[in-house]
């Protein structure tokens, strides 16, 4: 029996991200993945600002990941063919506009999944991750103290057992773990089966100069979807679920291109398009993440893979704090409380947009407010006991500028000045809890609590430790007498806006907030 703190099942994008984030927090873990390497048929392509913010904290990814222009989302047109007439462009979110002042220090990244995964895998290993490819889970069970996996090494056929205190199941839409746990799923359900062909055609990249990357091919007797990985590789998708031989695929590719271009077929694919959300993301010591938790169709808003990356960033610090004895195990309840509603929201938002609106039933359509791209990516609200002081009447999402420091949302991005030049607040609010205030008394109180609770709290004095190009107090919705507490995942978890409190009362207020957030009492974890 091999022992570790956390086992991750699944080594694709979400599993690798979980491994990277756990390694960043110093959590010993094992990742088990049955395939020897990444899939040769790329899947996800667009990674949002928020995902890049996470990766930015893990190392200098800016030199590795090509950055897309500020504020862009993938553009799509209806077309006779790539080289033929383009009829009309459709927007992902009708009426949305590019922000004049970007709400993130990062831009979206256009990188194929099969190129990003090796970057994540290598970085996780550098940070200490134990990643085992070519290993397959054959069975698992959990008890009140941990989870045990039976694993087979596919290279030599040997079997062994691995036991961890917790399991992250990132084993895909057909998750065996979710099925065995008996967790149900809601949502629109099955949409269609999509067959695809991946091919190399560098000549076609000249048509990307107008910034359009997706093409709905519409001919009298031929309909397909063409898109690119922006590296000379293109993929053509069919929704008729008909199997095509090589000659038929070549003919379809020529029709979609609409011009005599040289190409080479690389691989074929087949997958199920569906909208399904697990009714719970946690059962016992097992957590669902990625497609195991939420199966969403591909979108121009990046709601699929990026939602899974969000999941495990939210979960990693919580596991780290619980395993280190800094928090009670009930902190882990907040993962399901925060992430499942966000998964459901992203399901509803997917089908409220034009690409998929025809599949949204009347009940969902009548209750779905269409949120803008920036609100969905950077302004979603997290509700749980790990956030203090949330107004129950608040919307599920809003533009970051509208939140102005509201507990439950991502701390706003603001460029810092002075010794912090070229740094964003996003770069500062990570790993540990952070308290910011213009009042030194709040900082002293937080320092006292840090000692009392044996908890690392970074205390930053606005105007001294933190200076910015804009008004930090306004951005966080407080006066010079207020204070804001930010979690290790960058979510604001408590705020005192303006009320003057003195001495021991300050200590008491911060302590009570942290005890609730971390599921602790005065005598320790519970």
TrEMBL record:
One of its GO terms (molecular function) is FAD binding. InterPro entries: FAD-bd, FAD/NAD-bd_sf, RIFMO-like. Residues 4-343 form the FAD-binding domain. Its cofactor is FAD. Keywords: FAD, Flavoprotein, Monooxygenase, Oxidoreductase, Plasmid. This is FAD-dependent monooxygenase. It comes from Pseudoalteromonas xiamenensis. The lineage of its organism: Bacteria, Pseudomonadati, Pseudomonadota, Gammaproteobacteria, Alteromonadales.
């Amino acid at each position: 029996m091999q022992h570790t703190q956390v086992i991750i099942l699944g080594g694709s994008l979400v599993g690798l991200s979980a491994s990277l984030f756990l390694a960043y927090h110093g959590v010993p873990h094992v990742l088990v993945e049955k395939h020897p390497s990444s899939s040769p048929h790329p899947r996800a392509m667009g990674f949002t600002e928020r995902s890049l913010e996470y990766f930015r904290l893990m190392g200098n990814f800016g030199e590795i990941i090509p950055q897309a222009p500020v504020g862009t989302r993938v553009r799509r047109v209806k077309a006779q063919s790539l080289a033929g007439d383009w009829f009309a462009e459709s927007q992902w979110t009708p009426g949305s506009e590019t922000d004049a002042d970007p709400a993130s220090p990062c831009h979206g990244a256009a990188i194929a999944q099969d190129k990003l995964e090796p970057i994540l895998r290598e970085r996780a290993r550098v940070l200490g991750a134990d990643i085992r490819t070519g290993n397959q889970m054959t069975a698992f069970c959990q008890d009140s103290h941990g989870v045990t996996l039976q694993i087979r090494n596919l290279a030599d056929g040997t079997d062994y057992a691995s036991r961890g205190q917790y399991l992250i199941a990132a084993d895909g839409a057909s998750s065996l773990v979710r099925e065995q746990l008996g967790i149900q799923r809601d949502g629109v359900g099955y949409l269609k089966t999509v067959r695809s062909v991946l091919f190399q055609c560098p000549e076609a990249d000249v048509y990307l100069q107008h910034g359009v990357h997706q093409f709905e091919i519409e001919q009298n007797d031929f309909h397909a979807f063409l898109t690119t990985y922006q590296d000379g590789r293109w993929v053509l998708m069919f929704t008729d679920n008909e199997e095509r031989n090589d000659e038929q695929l070549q003919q379809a590719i020529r029709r979609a291109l609409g011009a005599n271009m040289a190409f080479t077929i690389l691989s074929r694919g087949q997958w199920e398009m569906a909208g399904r959300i697990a009714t719970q993301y946690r059962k016992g010591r097992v957590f669902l993440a990625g497609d195991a938790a939420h199966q969403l169709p591909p979108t121009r808003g990046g709601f699929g893979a990026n939602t899974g990356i969000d999941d495990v960033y939210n979960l990693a610090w919580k596991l780290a704090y619980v395993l280190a004895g800094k928090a009670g195990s009930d902190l882990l309840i907040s993962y399901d409380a925060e992430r499942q509603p966000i998964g459901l929201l992203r399901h509803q938002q997917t089908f409220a947009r034009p690409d998929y609106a025809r599949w949204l039933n009347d009940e969902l359509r009548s209750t779905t407010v269409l949120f803008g791209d920036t609100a969905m990516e950077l302004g979603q609200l997290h509700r749980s006991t790990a956030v203090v002081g949330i107004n129950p009447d608040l919307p599920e999402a809003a533009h970051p500028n509208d939140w102005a420091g509201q507990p439950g949302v991502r701390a706003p991005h603001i460029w810092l000045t002075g010794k912090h030049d070229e740094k964003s607040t996003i770069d500062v609010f990570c790993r540990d809890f952070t308290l910011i205030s213009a009042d030194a008394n709040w900082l002293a109180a937080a320092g006292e609590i840090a000692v009392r609770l044996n908890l690392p709290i970074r205390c930053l004095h606005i105007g001294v430790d933190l200076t910015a190009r804009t008004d930090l107090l306004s951005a966080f919705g407080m006066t010079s007498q207020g204070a804001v507490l930010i979690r290790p995942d960058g979510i604001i978890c408590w705020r005192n806006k303006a009320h003057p409190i003195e001495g021991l009362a300050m200590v008491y207020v911060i302590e009570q907030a942290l005890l609730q957030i971390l599921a602790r009492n005065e005598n320790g974890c519970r």
